[in-house]
Sequence to fold (135 residues):
Amino acid sequence: MAPQLLPLLLLLLAGPPAARPAPPTCYSRMLTLSREITADFQSLQATEPAEPCVRYLPRLYLDIHNYCVLAKLRDFAGSPQCWRVAQVDALKDKVRKLYTIMNSFCRRDLVFLSDDCNALEYPIPVTTVLPGHQS
Fold:
C-alpha cells in the first residue's frame, strides 16, 4: 500500500466526527433548573444576611415530583419582599421560567409522585450510608 494512502485510510476508518449530545429533555431541563434555584436560594441566604427582607422570603426547597411545587413557585415569584435586591430579582426570574416550563411546555412530561406540601417546607435531609457501614 502506498504510504500517502495510509493517512487517508485512517481518516476513513475513524468515521465521522462525534455528533453533538442530544439537547436536554423537558425533564432534564426542569430538574437542572430546580437544582440551580435551590442552590441560588441557599447561597442568597448565606451571603445576604445584611438584607433583612431575605429572611422573610418564602422557603425555596424544590422537588419537581411534588405537586405542591407549582404553588410554591407561584408564591415565591409573586412575593413582594426584596423587590429592590438584584440577586432576588434574578432568582425570581428563574423561578418564573421554571413555573412556565412546568405549567405549559413540559406539562405532559411531569409525573408527580407526591402532594405533600409540608415536605417542601421542611425537607428531609438526605443521608448517604455506605454499604457495609450500617450500624
Notes: The radius of gyration is 23 Å. The chain has a mean pLDDT of 77. Helices lie at 5-14, 26-47, 69-78, 86-105, 118-121.
